[in-house]
Amino acid sequence: MADKKEYLFKVLVVGDLGVGKTSIIKRYVHQIFSQHYRATIGVDFALKVIHWNDDTLIRLQLWDIAGQERFGNMTRVYYREAVGAFVVFDVTRASTFEAVNKWKNDLDSKVTLPNGQNIPAVLLGNKCDQMKEGLTKNKSQMDQYCKEKGFVAWYETSAKANINVEEAAKFLVGQMLANDKTYPSRDLDLNSLDLNMPLEETKTGCCG
Amino acid sequence: MDEVLPEEFDVILIGTGLPESVLSGALSRIGKNVLHVDSNEYYGGSWASFNIKTFDKLMSETQMHQEDNSNPVNLEALISEDEEFLLMSASQQNLSNCQSYCYLSKQPDWVVATNVVEPNVVAEPDEVEISDDKDSPVDVATTAPTMVQKHSDTEDLSCRDVDFEERNNSDNDNEKPGVSDKQSGDPAKEKSTDNDSRNGQVDAFNNATSEEKLENASDQSSQADLPHKETPLFPFYEKFYENWRRFNLDLSPKVMFSRGQLVELLIQSNVCRYLEFRNVTRTLTVLSGENRLQPVPCSRADVFKSKFVTVVEKRILMRFLTLCANFEQHPQEYEAYKDRPFQDFLQSKHLSTKVQHFIIHSIAMVSEQTSTMEGLHATQKFLKSLGRYGSSHAFLCPMYGVGELPQAFSRLSAVFGGTFCLRRRVIGIVADKTSRAVKGVIDSTGQKIKCQHLVLDESHLPDICRSGFKREVSRAIYVTDKSVSPSETEEVSLITLPPVGNFPLYRVIEAGPLCCLSPNNYYVVHALTKPSCVDENAIVDLKETFHSAEKTMFAGTAAELEIANNNESDKQKPAVLWAAYFNMMSCGVNNDSLPGNVYVMSSPGFELGFDKAMNEARRTFEIICPDEEFLPRAPEPEEIVFDDEGYKSENNGNSRENPNEQPEAGNGDYMETEEDLQEEEEPDVQGLIDQEQGVGDHVSDGNGDNA
Ligand SMILES: Cc1cc2nc3c(=O)[nH]c(=O)nc-3n(C[C@H](O)[C@H](O)[C@H](O)COP(=O)(O)OP(=O)(O)OC[C@H]3O[C@@H](n4cnc5c(N)ncnc54)[C@H](O)[C@@H]3O)c2cc1C
Ligand SMILES: Nc1nc2c(ncn2[C@@H]2O[C@H](COP(=O)(O)OP(=O)(O)OP(=O)(O)O)[C@@H](O)[C@H]2O)c(=O)[nH]1
Ligand SMILES: [Mg+2]
């Protein structure tokens, strides 16, 4: 199709230590789960290409919290131009749920959509394979919580058992697509310099 | 953040300024285990950029970090017999004499109600405060210039709103509504005779008649009989602060030489993917005896096109710059002047006064006294950068402010495993009594963290390693309503205002929405000068320090212009809507008292570019990791293949496909034109003459210098 539309969406994946952020990304992007715990080194984001439908191609950048940037002190680079987020907690650990509010507030204070609204955030209660009735057992309470805190949805997920990861991502992509249609994305006529492209003053972004 | 940190690291870095962040990125990149802490809640230290509300707040805070609400740490339990403890100073004093002002009127009720209301009704508060209310961070009175914030350093007189008293010294008791003096009754007030005694001196500078009239007019207005204006000249205060988040105001504005070390490093390490840049699009200056900014011709094309230099000047300038570009190959040209002032050398080359001015102040950016060798090197450095990213541009600046730079390197460090912790204060260093080597640090939560090496920014030195504070750079920041030299397209300007009379040299950088430093229709003007008095306790009136620069660049403050009939003011020049003044401090390092494995990174100084900071980071890296590569290329996410074992880099960035593939095009406008020096080129001369007469424009596009 000649008029196939392409989108690039930057999605932030935040949440406390060890809740399974990296596992969820690995599951979603690479269909792999590893019991082995390791810090993520040297990677800014994982890229997932989605053939949404016949005329829509989506490139999803999933930005993990860099290895140890986990004290919640991410730099602007991390937030810049994000259009969606997953806030992850571990259904087996209450403290990680308590931290959800902090993560959500952090997002809302650091990044907004071009129209000034908060970026859509989906709450993920991960490791639901471990506890049938974990922190998310009261569904209506969870719904209420999400409404109060401004989450667009919540899911019980398991990176290990591959539960709801795909669904959650699909929902968020739908939100981001809808948002993208309501307002034009950033002006592209004011492109900045690319340091790798000398003497070409109007190139998209920096360094590709 | 009181989370417990791991107990041991290879390197601990304190402060997230640029050199520390570059070093942190470089260390993590090669696999060192790094802890990077900062007592601030923001990245960048003295290199940070802030939105305008945060900036107002910063200017008003007594000290940058004072919330020491942590429990006292029981040191005895943490320090063993053979260890000693070096206490870190609790206050950091990177900034002093801070003050900020908003010159816009608060929206009076009649604007909303369309009914006429006495404006002085609004002018009620006599104290200006920061309010937490988002829509109106500060209470202001109508019309009167307002000191937004005050740095209430009790030892420092100069933070008072002396401007008001001095300029209206006919009536010292006449406190304007809306102008606060939070320090009433404090030591500053008692010493006010000091201020008075300086008034005569101040007025000598201040005798510009239009200024005086503006002041007088402003006087009357505050007596509350300001007539209503149907269309205010300037946005209301509320409107202005509506866009507070879109300002990015630098503590240390600088520009990047296109061939400077920072640009090379950004490319080499691939950190540039985190950043966006713009060209500095023009260089401006003021010639002596004039009061008007004019463009400095730098590139060959500029020189051709310039209307400010004659044909003969053009030719001599062109030859001279070509010589400077490759001066090492022509020692006979400058041998005799090696140790003499650069200016003498310029004179010997028959450069006119105007052209000498351009070279000294705007191209080499040195002083008349600088030695010829230094001048030649500086000129060459500029010429090398010229044309790399645009035919007549030599400098770049990061979008969203200089504060993005340390953050980009910090991100690199974090991506490669560095642990970052803001809002974490280190209270002191633990050193071995006998070897004097640092063994670790103790933070304000009472945690002892071990390390092999410790990197500090200057402001975090333990007291005993300090040799005393001094003022390093005096700063002013202005938000204006238009460019200092309006043109069709938005420009990014580097401006040198050479010293005149008692006034010093000012370096000025102006940028706006294009660099995302301000919302649309506003400009940010950064002015820097060397402090007239470096002593931290001396009284300075920073407004006075910048008076001459302000007169050259601006029509006046919005408050002044709103009152004055606008025929008074130079309509071409911008109005100042908001301003801040402060001194950047440096504290000398007493190297003798410094343990061997402690490295101190300097605060940003007056230097224009980033080479000093980059050198410092690189040198320290080479000491800590003698055989390692400094910032090898980080792979793009696409280059990372994934297997069951986890993420793995295909090409761990250590080998580029083509290591020599560096941007080479546009290599120095004057660099490859050796022959120009040897021979006169007749066509060139003809070209120059044609140009002068407006005939033919062979050089209109970029580097077309061999027309
Ligand atoms: C530490 C910190 C980092 C931030 N980083 C970003 C970021 O990387 N990307 C982001 O979009 N917002 C960022 N923000 C938020 C940003 O400063 C604004 O608060 C937000 O964009 C909404 O601004 P606005 O509605 O006033 O302006 P708008 O008119 O909505 O902004 C205009 C456009 O500029 C973008 N923009 C504004 N400020 C920044 C900025 N500082 N950096 C990058 N883009 C910006 C906006 O996203 C928007 O597309 C950050 C805020 C903080 C405190
Ligand atoms: N049972 C179960 N374990 C999981 C699941 N997701 C992740 N884990 C495990 O939880 C641990 C932490 O997972 P990570 O993906 O590394 O978590 P993270 O949030 O990226 O952690 P940090 O990067 O250290 O903050 C690992 O041992 C995973 O194997 C899940 O859905 N179910
Ligand atoms: Mg992880």
UniProtKB/TrEMBL annotation, chain A:
Domain of life assignment: Eukaryota
Q: Which SMART domains match?
A: RAB (SM00175), RAN (SM00176), RAS (SM00173), RHO (SM00174)
Topology in the lipid bilayer: Lipid-anchor
> Which compartments does it reside in?
Membrane
Q: Which UniProt keywords apply?
A: GTP-binding, Lipoprotein, Membrane, Nucleotide-binding, Prenylation
Primary location: membrane
CDD domains, sorted: Rab32_Rab38
The reply to whether Transmembrane figures as a keyword in the UniProt entry is no
Q: What is this protein for, i.e. what is its function?
A: The small GTPases Rab are key regulators in vesicle trafficking.
The protein's name:
Ras-related protein Rab
What is the scientific name of the source organism? Answer: Clavelina lepadiformis (Light-bulb sea squirt)
Automatic annotation (TrEMBL), chain B:
Question: Where does it live in the cell?
Answer: Cytoplasm
Region Disordered, as annotated, extends over 165-203, 644-707
Q: Which Gene3D superfamilies match?
A: FAD/NAD(P)-binding domain, Guanine Nucleotide Dissociation Inhibitor, domain 1, Guanine Nucleotide Dissociation Inhibitor, domain 2
Q: Where is the composition biased (Basic and acidic residues)?
A: 165-197
Which Pfam families would you find in this protein's record? GDI (PF00996)
UniProt cross-references to InterPro entries, sorted A to Z? FAD/NAD-bd_sf, GDP_dissociation_inhibitor, Rab_escort
Family, per entry: Belongs to the Rab GDI family.
Entry protein name: Rab proteins geranylgeranyltransferase component A
Write down the species.
Clavelina lepadiformis
